[in-house]
């Protein structure tokens, strides 16, 4: 099953205030995100991160690797505006700015940014992006 969360912003303390996330600290946010993914994503599932996996400096690579390896599934990155080389160089199954995938019979175009049109837009193909949207903090898998 493909999961398509985005804008996780692991390690970004200001995202809690910017997006009114219900966490007292970045550590609590990071731990909750990881626990939620571990509760619903299996190792044979595809986890498509729709951009902005983590936020930090290039020297935070070890921390980025820790978060990355804590997540189950085959991890794919759709590159977002906050994904620098330290994030892109993690051992993703693939990294792309946009991807076309199937979820059962449904075709999807994945991109970090919202699009006015996309391949198959007039033929029942759905575009999945991260902006604008509201997250469900009880589970990232819905």
Summarize the structure.
Helix content is 23%, strand content 20%. The protein has 142 residues and is α/β, with parallel strands linked by helices.
Coarse structural class: alpha/beta
What is the element string, with H for helices and E for strands? EHHEHEHEEEE
Spatial sequence of strands, sheet with the most strands: 1-2-3-4
Low-confidence parts: none
- Mean pLDDT, all residues: 87
Q: Helicity level, as a percent range?
A: 10-25%
Structure, explained:
The chain is α/β, with parallel strands linked by helices. It has helices at 15-18, 26-40, 61-70, 85-88, and strands at 2-3, 46-49, 74-78, 94-96, 98-103, 106-111, 126-128. Helices cover 23% and strands 20% of the residues. It has a four-stranded parallel β-sheet, with no helix packed on it. The model has no long low-confidence stretch (mean pLDDT 87).
Characteristic key phrases:
142 residues; alpha/beta; four-stranded parallel β-sheet; three-stranded mixed β-sheet; 4 helices; 7 strands
Topology:
Layout: E1 2-3, H1 15-18, H2 26-40, E2 46-49, H3 61-70, E3 74-78, H4 85-88, E4 94-96, E5 98-103, E6 106-111, E7 126-128
Parallel strand pairs: 1-2, 2-3, 3-4, 6-7
Antiparallel strand pairs: 5-6
């Amino acid at each position: 099953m493909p999961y398509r969360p985005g804008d996780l912003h692991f390690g970004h303390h200001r995202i809690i205030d910017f997006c009114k996330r219900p966490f007292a600290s970045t550590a609590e946010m990071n731990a909750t995100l990881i626990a939620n993914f571990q509760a619903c994503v299996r190792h044979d599932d595809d986890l498509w991160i729709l951009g902005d996996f983590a936020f930090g400096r290039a020297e935070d690579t070890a921390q980025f690797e820790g978060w990355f390896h804590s997540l189950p599934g085959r991890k794919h990155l759709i590159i977002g505006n906050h994904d620098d080389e330290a994030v892109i160089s993690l051992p993703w199954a693939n990294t792309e700015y946009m991807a076309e995938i199937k979820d059962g019979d449904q075709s999807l175009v994945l991109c970090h940014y919202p699009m006015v049109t996309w391949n198959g837009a007039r033929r029942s193909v759905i575009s999945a992006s991260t902006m604008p949207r509201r997250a469900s903090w009880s589970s990232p898998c819905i």
